[in-house]
Amino acid sequence: DVKVTQSSRYLVKRTGEKVFLECVQDMDHENMFWYRQDPGLGLRLIYFSYDVKMKEKGDIPEGYSVSREKKERFSLILESASTNQTSMYLCASSFGPRWLAGGTPSTDTQYFGPGTRLTVL
Amino acid sequence: SQQGEEDPQALSIQEGENATMNCSYKTSINNLQWYRQNSGRGLVHLILIRSNEREKHSGRLRVTLDTSKKSSSLLITASRAADTASYFCAPKTSYDKVIFGPGTSLSVIP
C-alpha cells in the first residue's frame, strides 16, 4: 500500500515563528502536493512539485515556501507564521503522467497523508 | 478555475438508503475523480472516470459522467453508517493538478 506520512498530526505555534511541515511518501512518486483545507473552502493547492528540486506555485502560495531535496520528501515552510495560516494541511503524492497504448495519457490518483492541524496563536 | 462544485453541500439519510451527490465543472477535462474524507483525516481516492466513459461501478459506488453538461454524479447504494464522510469531486485537465471543491457532507443515520 502507498503510504504518505506527515511529521505531526497536531501542531501549535506562535505568530512569527518559522514552521516546517514534512511529508514523506514511500512509493517513488514523482509528484507531490501541499494543500490547506478550511471549512467551506475545500482544499486549496499551495504548491506542488513534479520532480526533485522542482516546484510550482498553486493557487495560494503567498506566505509559504517549499523544498524538495529528495524524491520522497516534500517540505512546506511557513517563514513567519500568522494566525490566518491556522488550518488543516494535507500532503499528497502521485505518479507522474504515463502514456497508455494509443497515446492516451493516464494520470494517476493522488494519495493523501493524514493531515496536520496547525494552530497559530 | 476547474473547481468542482458539489451539490448538495450536506446530505442526511437513513442507513440502507441510496445517496446521490452531484458535481459540476467548467471546462473540458481528461478525467474526474471522487474522493472521500473521514472527519479529521486525509482524503482517500474512490473512483476515477475518464472523459470517454459515461458510467463506472466500484462495489456500491456508481459514477456517471456527462461531458456535454459538464457534470458527474456519485451514487452510493445501500448506505451504511461507515459511509458518513465528506465527498469531493476532482476534475482534472492538465498535468496532475486538480482543484477540489468544498465537498458534500454525508451523514448516514443508523
Overall pLDDT score of chain A: 88
Q: Can you tell me the CATH architecture of the domain at 1-8 and 15-77 and 84-95 in chain A?
A: Sandwich
Main beta sheet of chain A: strand number and arrangement? 7 strands, mixed
Strand content of chain B: over 45%
The count of strands of chain B amounts to 10
Structural class of chain B: mainly beta
Proportion of strand residues of chain A: over 45%
Q: What is the name of the CATH architecture of chain B?
A: Sandwich
Look at the structure and give the CATH class of the domain at 1-8 and 15-77 and 84-95 in chain A: Mainly Beta
Structure description:
The complex is a heterodimer of chains A (121) and B (110). Chain A is an all-beta fold and 121 residues long. Chain A has a domain at 1-8 and 15-77 and 84-95: Sandwich (Immunoglobulin-like). Chain A is built from no helices and 13 strands. In chain A, strands 2, 4, 5, 6, 9, 12 and 13 form a 7-stranded mixed beta sheet that branches. Chain A is globular. Mean pLDDT of chain A is 88; it is low at 99-106. Chain B has one domain (5-102): Immunoglobulin-like, CATH 2.60.40. Chain B is built from no helices and 10 strands. In chain B, a hairpin with a 4-residue loop joins β7 (61-66) and β8 (71-76). The chains are: A mainly beta (121), B mainly beta (110).
Throw out a few tags for this protein:
heterodimer; A: 121 residues; mainly beta; Immunoglobulin-like; seven-stranded mixed sheet; four-stranded antiparallel sheet; 52% strand; B: 110 residues; five-stranded mixed sheet; globular
Please write out the topology.
The complex is a heterodimer of chains A (121) and B (110).
Chain A: E1 4-6, E2 10-13, E3 19-25, E4 31-38, E5 42-49, E6 56-57, E7 65-70, E8 73-78, E9 87-94, E10 98-99, E11 105-106, E12 111-112, E13 116-120
Parallel strand pairs in A: 2-13
Antiparallel strand pairs in A: 1-3, 3-8, 4-5, 4-9, 5-6, 7-8, 9-12, 9-13, 10-11
Chain B: E1 5-7, E2 10-14, E3 19-24, E4 31-37, E5 43-50, E6 55-58, E7 61-66, E8 71-76, E9 85-92, E10 104-109
Parallel strand pairs in B: 2-10
Antiparallel strand pairs in B: 1-3, 3-8, 4-5, 4-9, 6-7, 7-8, 9-10
